[in-house]
Structures are given as C-alpha cells and as structure tokens.
Write a structure and sequence with these properties.
The protein has 224 residues and is mainly alpha-helical. The protein has one domain: Transmembrane di-heme cytochromes, Chain C (Fumarate Reductase Cytochrome B subunit, Up-down Bundle), CATH 1.20.950. Helix content is 76%, strand content 0%. The N and C termini lie far apart (60 Å). Bound molecules: protoporphyrin IX containing FE. The site of protoporphyrin IX containing FE has 27 residues, from α2, α4, α6, α7 and α8. Protoporphyrin IX containing FE (HEM) binds next to α2, α4, α6, α7 and α8.
C-alpha cells in the first residue's frame, strides 16, 4: 500500500469510527457524570453588543440548515430521492442552498470570532477552549464553503462520490474511502477537521447544542 493510500485509508476509513466512538463514550460520560457542567456560558449577559447578538443569531440558524444539508446531501440513500430528483438537480440544490446557508454561517461565525478576540469584557471571561472552538468552527465553515465551490466546478460523479463514501462508512463497508481518495485535499481537510470537532464535542461547551434542545423539550412536556 502506498503512503497516500495508507493516509487516505486511515483518515477517511478509520478516523470516522474513532471519532464516533469517542463522541458517544464522551457524550454518555458527560451526561452521567458531569451533567451540571453542560452550559454555553452565554456572552450576551456580559456584553450587550448588537454585533454579538446578530452574529450569534445568524450562526445558529444557518448552522442548523447546514446540518440538514449534510444529512440530505451525504447520508440520504439514492432510492429515497431518485424517483423525484436527478443527481444533477441534487448537485445544483447542494451548491445553491449550501452556498447560501454556508455563507450566512460564515458571516455569523466571523462576527463571533472577532468579538471573542477583541471585546474586552468577553476576553476577560474567555478560556483557551472558547478561542480554540470558535477558531476551529471558522476554519471548518470556510473549508466547507471552499468544498462547495469545488463541487460547482466538478462533475456530478465527483459530487456523488462524497455521498457514496459517507453511506459506505455508515454501513461499515471497509473500502469506502476509495470513493473520495482522488478528491481535492480541501474536501479531505474539511472532513478530518469535522471529525476532530466530533472528538472534542463532548468535552467542550459544544455539548449545549444537543442538551439545550433536549432540556427545552423535557421542560415543555413536564407541563402536561
Ligand atoms: C465530519 C463530518 C463532515 C463531513 C463528512 C462533511 C462533508 C462536507 C462536504 C462533502 C461538503 C461539500 C458539499 C458539496 O458538495 O457542496 C461540506 C460542506 C460544508 N460543510 Fe461539512 N462536513 C462535515 C462536518 C461539518 C461541520 C461540523 C460543519 C460546521 C460546523 C460543516 C460545515 C460545512 C459548511 C458550512 C459547508 C458548505 C455549505 C454546505 O454545503 O452545506 N461541516 N461538508
């Protein structure tokens, strides 16, 4: 096996399972053992900055759309949409909706990053983790948008290869990494950085993304 095949096999074949393993084990540990530490430490109590409010609003709504875009674009099997949508239409939708939602997410996270690094009151309460996570998200979104740009310049077969890979990984097919082994390095950096975010997720404030909606739903149903 060549060095390049070895690296592709490790990062696109094994890393997804390592990342999800750490994610689920860490998630259970955090919920069971350290539930009271799950919070977002909102900076909106510290600073009444309007930019912060808009940055946060744009980022959170756009990232939810990006999440559903990934679910549909990568993990939805062909038979679900083949009867009403061609692969070319799906590619066009991914490019148009992906650029829009990704663009808004980039705007939001850029505002949040600038505020995190420059607002004196926010800096005073920020930990290393806060700077690191926001920078990682900024990088991830920029790489994602760059990937979408590359998709707009490539063939429909290249676009479909990312979905074939993701679904192969989900079904434990060991050679799935070969689907995307020849794609541009930008896609691979986006994927590897994405799995790094998954690995860090349970040990950081990102946990609020899952726990706040769950707590909200539980509180809502307690009323009945
Ligand atoms: C490890 C899991 C991930 C995989 C496999 C993945 C894969 C991809 C792929 C293949 C694209 C290009 C879509 C196209 O062809 O147009 C993309 C785009 C994008 N990704 Fe990811 N991604 C992952 C995680 C993330 C995370 C955690 C974020 C944000 C925090 C993110 C944000 C974006 C954005 C903003 C875009 C551009 C807009 C869009 O197409 O939705 N991705 N991603």
């Amino acid at each position: 096996m060549s060095t390049s095949d070895y690296l592709n096999n490790f990062f696109l074949g094994y890393l997804p399972y390592i990342a999800f393993g750490v994610f689920f084990a860490g998630f259970i540990y955090r919920v069971v053992k350290r539930n009271n530490t799950i919070q977002a430490n909102s900076t909106q109590f510290i600073s009444k900055d309007r930019g912060l409010y808009w940055g946060s609003l744009l980022f959170h709504y756009a990232i939810i759309l990006v999440f559903f875009g990934h679910l549909f674009g990568l993990l939805t099997p062909k038979w679900v949409y083949d009867w009403f949508m061609s692969h070319e239409t799906k590619r066009m939708l991914a490019i148009i909706l992906g650029s829009l939602s990704g663009g808004v997410a980039l705007l939001g996270i850029t505002v949040l990053t600038i505020r995190r690094f420059t607002n004196k009151r926010i800096c005073a309460t920020s930990k290393f983790q806060d700077y690191f996570i926001v920078s990682l998200l900024l990088l991830q979104i920029a790489l994602g948008l760059w990937s979408t740009y590359l998709t707009s310049q490539s063939t429909v077969e290249e676009y479909m290869s990312a979905g074939n890979w993701a679904q192969g990984v989900a079904l434990f097919k060991p050679d799935s990494w070969r689907f995307i082994a020849d794609l541009d390095i930008v896609y691979k950096l986006h994927i590897v950085n994405g799995f790094l975010i998954f690995i860090l997720f349970p040990f950081t404030k990102l946990m609020h993304m899952i726990m706040i909606p769950i707590r909200f739903a539980l509180d809502y149903f307690k009323k009945f």
